[in-house]
Amino acid sequence: VNKNNHGIKAGALFFALAAATVAAHAQPQRRGIPVEPLANGPFDYVTGEPQKIRVRVLTRGLEKPWSLAFLPDGGMLITERPGRVRLFRNGKLEPEPLAGVPAVRFTLIGGLYDVKLHPDFARNRYVYLTYAKPTSETSDVLTVARATFDGRALNDLQEIFVAEGATGQSRLLFAPDGKLHVSVFGEPREIAQDPMDLSGKTLRLNDDGTVPNDNPFVGEKGYRPEIYTIGHRSPEGMVWHNGKIWETEMGPNGGDEVNVLEAGKNYGWPYVSLGRSYPGPYQRNGFHLDGMTDPVVSWVPSISTTGMTFYTGDKLAAWKGNLFVGGVRYGEIPGTGSLSRIVFNDKMEELRREALLTDLHQRIRDVREGPDELLYVLTDETDGALLRIEPAE
Amino acid sequence: VNKNNHGIKAGALFFALAAATVAAHAQPQRRGIPVEPLANGPFDYVTGEPQKIRVRVLTRGLEKPWSLAFLPDGGMLITERPGRVRLFRNGKLEPEPLAGVPAVRFTLIGGLYDVKLHPDFARNRYVYLTYAKPTSETSDVLTVARATFDGRALNDLQEIFVAEGATGQSRLLFAPDGKLHVSVFGEPREIAQDPMDLSGKTLRLNDDGTVPNDNPFVGEKGYRPEIYTIGHRSPEGMVWHNGKIWETEMGPNGGDEVNVLEAGKNYGWPYVSLGRSYPGPYQRNGFHLDGMTDPVVSWVPSISTTGMTFYTGDKLAAWKGNLFVGGVRYGEIPGTGSLSRIVFNDKMEELRREALLTDLHQRIRDVREGPDELLYVLTDETDGALLRIEPAE
């Protein structure tokens, strides 16, 4: 992180820090020590419950991986932000990326984001992608596309939804009712509160990209009918758990959040936050505003939250029901990524948490439970890795 | 941390965790790796500004050190919580503790706390101590005593203030007006809001322990006249900076705070907090309540804040004006102590922060700027250490 960045204000700082992070790859340092590349491992830890774990490096050679999807045949699809989908199968990364992936605009924070299989993938072979579709050399638009996967390539790619005016990271989720939820980045300024703008919202779509009739604002004047929830900043994680949609979002200078999403509700960005703005003042209305929904979990300072998963398996027995949230950075400092583990009571109120994998000094981009009841983790590095967390002994 | 602790509720959990931490000394583990003792160092880091630092281990062999005071002759006094004052002089720890230290009740969190020199120490040789004075085998009372220091022993120790009904950690501060500020632990339940109880308050006294006539509640019916501020939970750091008193306090399950103290104000514990209670629910009134002062800095989850200092020197040039706050633990996990460095804008609003010394896996109990403009750090371990942070290269 270069000293010159520190005079830069507000939104610009976000990009300055992204730039600094990229610079840190060229000349990697963490708190003074040149960052050694991720060691081969495996790495053994005992966590707080206690749960003994072994962390294995399954593959490297992924460039800024963002998301993964488990295939029914045991393999997985992994997105790389520069605009590739990779296939990990039979314990190794296929050298050639999938054909048929759309062009993306790869920037400091933009490119190809999420990949999701249709709930009925076994029959229809549908794969969904979100990405920054280039509209010029200097602009892009958030797009959701659907293609069929034949085991080697994506075919018949079709843009099913273009989020006009929106850009930035985006997560996909299929709810059990078959609807497709799409999260949309919510900067700058108050765009996340504008009900006629898709930015800073989560959207609810049919699986073909059309708008369901039972969306909360359908027929309401002054509201985009795609909107499911309002007032989000940087919603990069979204999962279904215990009958609800859980979402992570990143604050600027503190105020990362986990929210439980309910149709039509407002989550407050940028009016309220537990964190501060980049230039220092708290957000306009401080910590709480009636009519806006408080977070269930928060981080101050920011860990720069990314993907999330609830662990529901039995193999990591002491972790059953725990929430895992990736983080790419503590405060502003490279080399301080983490995987948060959060324990809840039976009302889903936080009891305690810990930060895992901090000794690896890697940016943690996504975390998923595999069909084998093990946890899979992506490191958001130029030489990114796929890790697996297993029970030890 | 033992799984059995996790069913224990509320205040009891605090002590259960303290016990778990003690147990961790017997069988040290951090996230699965047996904790190696602190290495010899020195340890080199580059921090975020950037500032290159070298961390030296000046001495070990301190048992649960809590606070230190710099002597005009270049030595320093260091308190050990079991009830000793040690002298560090000419680069080494004197083997014999000072004579004349009062008996304390050493418990999982109690014992001897702060040591402060009188502002006119060069003339009067007064040293002040706060400690848990035993009142029976199972009880104690927070006491402030004053003694004279002859270079080898404390003499003529006199209890100048006994905080009837109060117990737990306590920090001392002399304000520039010569008044002695005393912080008082504020559990259990709503005792911190009871204006007739000294617990959960900061107090303002004359240097002989009597009550100044200009205290905010003097003459106000239903208020103890010693009270300066109200509504604190675990105020373990207190310093003077930029014309104000700055204080750190530890939340239970999130909600550690830095506050700026002003006469007569209420800081909200236990009605409001950015953190949760041990059993899970947020505090009764959530994040904010009109009439209660919001924190300037907070941590969610808790780092278990301890001592603090503003760095005002020139030797660590990039850190000038930064606030340093010790932490003994992230969440509930042993081996996760840290030293937070917080950068402010010119309105003293936070711009950013980082966690230092995390790789050492030590509990950080106190941090001070020495007369040599270097930072001194105490590790709160059974084999505790005094560290010095110097500029590197």
Give the strand order of the largest sheet of chain A, numbering strands 1, 2, ... along the chain.
1-2-25-24-23
Q: Biggest sheet of chain A, in brief?
A: 5 strands, antiparallel
Number of alpha- plus pi-helical segments of chain A: 2
Structural class of chain A: mainly beta
Low-confidence stretches of chain A: 1-34
Largest interface: A-B, 54 and 54 residues
Q: Work out the strand percent of chain A.
A: 35-45%
State the distance separating the first and last CA atoms of chain A: 40 Å
Q: Compute the gyration radius of chain A: what is it? A: 20 Å
Oligomerization: homodimer
Which whole number gives the mean pLDDT of chain A?
Answer: 91
Following the backbone from N to C, one meets helices and strands of chain A in this order, namely HEEEEEEEHEEEEEEEEEEEEEEEEEE
**Overall number of strands of chain A:** 25
Percent range of helical residues of chain A: under 10%
Shape of chain A: globular
